[in-house]
Amino acid sequence: LGIFILLAGTWLLLDSKLLLLVTNRTALISLASYTVFMLMPAVLIMYISEMSSGSQRPYYILCGIILANTALYLISYILAPVMIPYALSACHIMIMSAIIYVLYRCIHSAGSYNTPELKSILAGFIFMCLFSLMALISFYISSSSHYSYVYAIGLAIFITCMITASLQRMYNYITDNANVSAYKQLAYIDSLTGLMNKASFTTEHIKPITSPTAYIMFDLNGLKHTNDTYGHKEGDELIAAAAECIRAVFGRIGKCYRFGGDELIVILYGFKARDIDALLNYKLPAVINSCNSNRDIPLEVSYGYAICNDDSVTRHELFKQADERMYAMKKSVEGCSR
Fold this sequence. Notes:
This protein is α+β, with helices and mostly antiparallel strands and 338 residues long.
């Protein structure tokens, strides 16, 4: 399509009088104009063949005939100029036949053009064909150059339709990408907390350890009591509040996940144990206290973490150590057992 638009612009320039201002080689300009004019339908037919749902062989045959005829005209121009009028008439008959055939195929298969983009392309091509036929008729019944204006109008309409189709294609591409992004978010984001979910955690969990890595496990204290006493809605709000507190502390520096139920996990990279202790012992309690100032049911969490500096410990072992330490803290707080 881009090649066709380039050829169309070139033909309009060659067929105008502008080049006569810089050169007097009218014969050369006419030859170049004719060559470009004959290449345009060949390129357009190939473009239409790519959209056609039927056999493409007739399009290839048409394209081959047009190119062969163009070559024959050039040979006649060089070796037998007296044959040029006959060759030109033959070219016009062939172009009209090709336009009628392609137009018939497009209209016949109009039912398969079921998208705004394809309908715009079909409309543009129909207008292009009709104005091309009008231009050829005008060429023979009028001694003026009005035929070129008629053809230029058809080109303008066609290019406008192509631009419309391109904008529609761009819009569809952007919309499809937005949908894919939304579906991906649904697949990897927990709907209750907004944290990454277990599927996202699993994707991260299988990666090799290449830098200091820490796993921090969190579990809500008293969630069963909240669910039994106040209902699961209050329990869900408690989980969401815990996730918000954890995100406030670790969201910018690590990856936060809801593993399932009231179990939340944070993975940190490049942190030392003393840095993690400071976050868990000072910053997190401050954030939770601020959260509890606006809550009727207080939020309390137990946690445990494990850290390694190289790949001597696997992620699975880190997970297990952090989980055990978290439950040890939970047992000391609630007096419960696993």
